[in-house]
Give the backbone structure.
Amino acid sequence: MHLFCTCTLSFLLLTVSHLVSATVSNSFRDCRQFFYLQTAPAGIRGITLKSICQKYADKLRYATLYDSSRHLPLYSAYVFKKSDGKKRMDTPWMYEPQLVSDDESGNMKALPLTADTPPPIEDNQAVLEDYTDAVDYSRGPLNPDLHQAEPDDKSSTYTLTNVVPLITDFLDTSWKVYLDNIRRRLNNFCHGKSFIVTGITVSGANIKRGNTDRLAIPKHLWLAYCCPWFDHNSPYEVRFMFPSYGGYALNKQDDHAVVEVPLKTLENFLSSQKDIDSDVTIFYKGCVSENPLKKRDLTHA
C-alpha cells in the first residue's frame, strides 16, 4: 500500500510539473501550429535558448525562440490573418514569468516588476529599465500588433520577450513601412493562412545599464512569409512573391532600406551571419504552393 501511494504521488507530481511548465521548454511541442507544416526553423543558434509558447489571456498566441543570455528573441513565428493594421494603445508592456519560475497559468504578466516578482527575472530577460538610457533605440516587435486581427492577439505582442532594440529612425522610416506593405500584400492576395517568421542576426554589440551588458543589439532584422494558398491571378508585380518571399535590413542610422528577396536568397544571406548554420531553413521544404490551379498548370506543362 505504501509503495502504491508513493508511485501514485510521484506520477501526480510529474503530471503537475508538466502542466505548469508547458509554455517554456526546449521545444515548441505545444505551439507547433504557428509554424508552416508544424515545423520550426532550423539552423539558428544561440547561447541559452528557450522555446516560448507566448500565452496571453489563457490562450497561446505565437512562438518565440528566446536567448536568455543575450536578453533578446532570435525570432518570433506567428499566423497572419487579414489585419486592419491598427495598433493597441492601452496595453502595458509585459514579461514572461516562466523563464524563471513555474507559473500555473503560463500567462505573460504586466510590468513594472513588483515585490512578489521572482528575483532572477532580470537575469533571464529584458526589463523596461534596460531601455531607459538607450536613447537611439526603440522597442521593436518581431511579431507586430499591426499584423494581428483580434484585440487580444494584438495585446499579446507587447511583451519584452517579443521585442529587440532597434534604431528608432530605422524602425519608423523603413521597417514599419515594410511591415505595412506585407500586411496589404497578404490581405489582398493570400487566400488562407500566412505563416510569418521574423528574426534577427546578432552584431556582438550590447546596450549597457550601468556597467553591465543588458541587451544584445541586432545587426539585421529579417522577415519571411509563407502563403500556400494565394491568388494565382494576382498582378504581375507581386505574383512572383508567392507562395513565399522575404526581406532584411540593417539596424543602422542610415543605409537601412529593406531589401526584398526570394526565400532561398534570404536563407543564403542568413547562412553567412554569426550563429546561423550554413543549412538554415526557415520554412520546411521551402513553403510549397497548395494552389490547385498552380498544380494543374504544372501537370500540363
Q: What stands out?
A: The CA atoms of residues 21 and 88 lie 29 Å apart. The chain is about 25% helix and 30% strand. The two ends are 72 Å apart (CA to CA). The chain has one domain: 24-113+147-285.
